[in-house]
Amino acid sequence: MKTNYQLRLLMVLLLAPFFIWSQDSNTLFKLHPASRTGIEFNNLLTESDTLNILNQANIYNGGGIGMGDFNNDGLIDAYFAGNMVSNKLYLNQGNFNFKDVTKEALVDGQGHWSTGISVVDINADGWLDIYVAASFRNDPERRTNLLYINKGTNKKGIPIFEESAKSYGLADDGYSTQGYFFDYDQDGDLDMYLVTNEIYDPRTPIRYRAKLTDGSAKNTDRLYRNNGNQTFTNVSENAGITIEGWGHAANISDFNGDGWPDIYVANDFVSNDLLYINNQDGTFTNQLDNYFKHTAWNAMGTDVVDFNNDGFPDVISLEMLPENNLRKKRMLSGNEYYNYINNQQYSYNHQYVRNVLQLSSGPTPNGHPVFTDQAFMSGIYQTDWSWCPLAADFDNDGYKDLIITNGLPKDVTDLDYIAYESGQTAGAQSYTLEMTDRLPVVKLANYSFKNIDGSKFEDTSKKWGLDQKSFSNGGVYADLDNDGDLDVLVNNINDNAFVYENTLNVSDGHVSVSIKGPANNPDGYGASIKVYSNGKMQYFEHYPIRGYLSTSDSRIHLGIGNAAQVDSLRVQWPDGKSQVLSNLVENQISFNYSNATSTKESKPSFNNSIFTDASSEYQLVYTPQETDFSDFNIQPTIPHKLSQYGPGIAVGDIDGNGHDDLYIGGSSDNPGVFFMQNSDGTFTKDTNRFSKKEDILYEDMGILFFDADNDNDLDLYLVSGSYEIPARHEISNDRFFLNDGKGYFTRANNLPKDFTNGSCVKAADFDADGDLDLFVGGRVVSAAYPQAPESFLFRNDNGQFVDVTETYSPKLKRIGMVTDAVWSDFDMDGKPDLILAGEWMPITFFKNTGDSLVEIKTGIEDRKGWWNSLVAGDFDNDGDMDYVAGNLGLNTNYEATPKEPMTIIAKDMDKNGSFDGTVFCYMMGDDGIRKPYPIPSRDDLVGQVVSMRKKFPTYTSYGMADMDQLWTEAQKEGAIILEANEMRTSFIENKGNGQFAMSPLPNEAQAAPIYGMMAEDINEDGYLDILVVGNDYGMDPYSGRHDAFNGLCLLGSKNSGFQPMQLQNSGFYVKGDAKGLARVHIADQKDLYIATQNQDELIVLQKNSNKTKKWVHIQPGDFSADIWFKDGRRRKVEFQYGSSYLSQSSRTLPLEEGATKITITNFKGEKREAL
Fold it and tell me: What pLDDT score was predicted for residue 428?
C-alpha cells in the first residue's frame, strides 16, 4: 500500500507541471512555463522600511518589454525592464525557445530602476536600438536614461550594444516613464517625447490647485528634437511642452487628420491628461478640453487604435475600478460633488475612476473630432488596478480585441485600512514595512475582451486562457513563431513573466505588413495603413511604442476574417506620399518608401452634410444660464440630479405677424427669454414680454403656446418645477399667461393650485368641445425621490381650467415620475389618447373613451425604464401612429435587464423626516455570483441613513451586503419598491388593436440618455427619420456625466429599420447637455432646427438643400392629417401641441414632393382638404 501510494504521489508530482501549464487545449492562448521558453525573468521587488508603497507611491508601477528582431534573423526577440533586478535580453531561437544573452549583449540596465522600453533604429543603420527609461533612484546617476546602440552581431550571432545616451543628448535623469519616437517636425528623422512622473511634493498629486503650465514643474514632460547628426536637443519650452503631469503613458497619433503627429499623454492623480496638437510649426498646444468631454482620473496605460473600423483613431485609457462589488465598496468613498466645483474653479477637465473607451466622432464642424467615452456600453470599464492595454486582433476576425494587465501587491486605496491607520498613526512621519502588512493584496487574473462589433466587447478571459493571478504591468504582442497570429508577453512583479502562445494557427485570415521607410526613419514610424477587404475597412497608425512601458512587434498585423483576399491596401507616409496595392492574396506584404508617389488621400469634410450651423445668420445666439444646486446634499443616494433638466423650448407666432417666434425656458435666478422673428427671418431677443416680472425663483420646465380662450392668439403655459424648490412650496405652482394679441403676456388666475414640481404640459381637445385641454406631468417630490408626485388633467371650461383628474382618470393622479407625454390617436378612433413616459415606469397608454382615459394593456407594459421622451410618427407608412421612446441608454453603470432588473427601495427608514432610498444593480459578488448590490457608497448611505454606520461598521461589511441584507423584509414593509428592466431607447411599432411591439434603436442611439427628438423626413426619401439629442450632466459624481452623445440622425427606410448617419454626412452636431429640440418655420420659406443645452449655447441648424417648397399652415383645432403620395404610399401625421421632451415645434406641415392629397381632421372629427 505504501509503495503504491508513493508511486501515485510521484506520478502526480511529475505530471503537475503538465496539467498546470497545458491548461484547456481549447483556449486561444497557451501559457508556457519558463522551463519551456527559457524566459525566467522575474521583476522581483524587495521592500523595506524606507522603500515601500506607503512612502513611495510609484513603487509598483512595474517594468515594460521591448520587442524587436535585434539580431536580424527574422525572429522577434524580447527585452525586459527590471526595477530592482537586471534587465534581460532574450534571443528568439524559434519554437518558443529563448536564450538569455544579456551579459554578452551588455544591456543589463547598469543597476538603474528601469521602467519603459522603447525599441527604435535611432541611427538608421539597420540594427534596432533600445532606449531605457529610468526612474525612482535618489542618485541621479542611477536614474539616468540609457540608450543602447546596436553595433551588430558577434560571431555567435549575439547583438552587441554600446550605451550612448550622453553622447546622443538623451541622458535625461528626470524620473522618466518612457520615450516615444516620432517625427514631429516632418524633417525625416525621429524625435522623442519623454513622459515623466516625479512626485516631488507628496501633498500635491491628489489635491486640486492651479495648474503649473509654464514648464517650471519637475513633473513636466520633455520633447527632444533630433538634430540629424546623432544628437538631440531638449526643445520642450520652445515647443510648448510646459504643462505638468504625473505621466504613465503616451501615444502618438494624428488626432485631427491634418497629416501631422499629435501627442496624447495619460496622467496619474489629479493632473489632467494632455492632448498636444501639432501646430505644424514646431510647437504644440494642449487641446484636451476641445477634443475630450472627460477622461480617466488616475490614467495608466493608453493606446490609440481604430476599434470600430470607421477610419478614425479611438482611445483606450485604463484606471483602477474593480469589477468585484466588495472591492468597489472598499475603494470608493462618498459623494464627491465638490469635484465638479473644483474642476470649474481650477479649469480641470472632468475625470472618473474607470476605464474609458473614447470613440472618435470623425470630423465635426469645429474642424476636429470630439471623442465620446463608451466604456460602460462596451463592457470594458471595470478591470481593477489596470496597467497595459494591448489592442490588437488576436482572433483574426477583423476587429481589434483587448488584453488588459492588472494587479497590485498592496492596495493603498483600501478605505478600511485608511480609516484604521488614520486612528493608529496620526501624525506619523514615516511608514514602516510592517504597516503595509495590513494592506489588501490585489492579485488578479488579467482580462481579455473579444471585440464583437466595434462597440461591444465580450469578456473572454477564461475562454482565452488568461486566468492566472498575477501582478502584471507592461505587456506586448508579437508573432513570435511567425505563424500569422499574435502571441503575448507580460512583465510581472514578483513572478515569472508570462509567455502566451496564440493557438489560432491558421495560414489565412490575416495580413502581416512590413514597412521599409525613408533613410532616416527606416522602420517607417508614423505611416498609416488602410486595408479594404470584403466591404470592410481597417485603419492603423504605425507606432510600435504603445500601451504601457512597452514596444510591440513592429510588423503590422491585421486580421481579415473569412475574406479571400485584400481588395486594396493603402499606405500613407508621414510626408504625405502614398502607395496602393490591390487584389492581394498573399498574407506577407512589404511596403518600401522608395516606391511611394506624391498622391495625397482626400480628407473627410462637411461640404456635403445635410445640416449646417445657422445661429449667427439668423441672430439666434444665446447661452442659457443656471445656478448650480447639489441635489445630493438633500438626498445623498439619489442616482442623478433633478434640478438641471431644462431648458425647454416652445415655438409659435405670438405677435400675430405671421412668423414663428420662440421662448427659451428659464431657471431659478435666470428668467426665460423670447426671440421674436423679424420679417427677414432674423430674430431679436426680448426679455420684456411679461407685463409684470415674475418671482426670480421660478424654474420653467414644460412650455406651451396655445390659444386657451379661443381669441385667435397664443397664450402661454409654464410648468414650474425643480428639485431645488421645496415640496409643496408656492413657487412650484404652474403659471398661465394671456396674450393681449400683440405678443405681450399677463398672468391669469385661472389654474387650480397644484404645488407639484412638474415636467411637461401637453394640450389636446380631449373632450371634443372646441377648446384645448391640458395634461400636466409631475416629475418629482422634492427631498422624497422616488415618490410619485401628482399629475393632472385640466379641462378647459371657456378659458378656465378645472382639475378633472379624479373623475376622468384617477390612476393618472399618482402614475409616477412623469418625464414626457404625447396626445396621439393610437387606436385610430379619431380621439386623442394619452401616452406617458417616466422614470421607473413603462410607456403607459391611456385610451380616450370620450368621457374618461383608461389605461390599457399593450404588450409592452412590463418594459420599465428611465424613459425621458416620446415622439410620434407613422414611420412604416401604414396609416397608424408609431412611437420612439428616449431612455437612459446602455452607456451607464445603471444596468438593467429583465433577467437582472434594477431596483430602488425607499421610505423614511429611520423615521427622522427624510426620505431614504437605495438603488440596487446586479454586480459581481466576492463569491463570483452576480447579485443586486447597492450603487451608493457606504459614506453616501451613512449620509442618508446615519444608523447604517452602526449596522455596517466597516467598508468590508458593507461590501458584503446585498439587497436583502441591506433592506430586511421588515424594513421593506411600507416602502416604495420600483424596478427597471429596459434601458434602451426604442422604437414602438403600432400593431393595431391597442397592441405594440418594442425594439431597440441601433447602438449609436444607446450611447447616452435621449431627450429631444423629432420625426421628420430629413433626407426626403419618403420615410420618416429621427433626429435625437441627449446627454445628462447631472448623474451622480461616481457614475459621472453621461456625455457620450453628439446628436444623431437616424434614417428610416421601408424594411431595414433605422440606420445611423455619420456625423460628417448629417452635420447634425449637438454635443452638450442637450434637452429640447424644435423646428421653427422662418420668413424666407425654410425651417430651422433648434436644440437647447443646459448651460450651453443654443444650437441652430438649417438644411443645406431642401426639396420642400411649400408648407401647410395648421389651424388651432387641427389634430391630424392623412397624406397620399403618387407612389402609393399613405402616411398619417399628427399635429401635437408639444412633442418630445420640453419641446413644441412650429404648427406647419412641410408639403413633401410627390404628395397628391392631404386630408386634415380636427379634434371634433371634422375634415378638410388641404391639397
Answer: 54
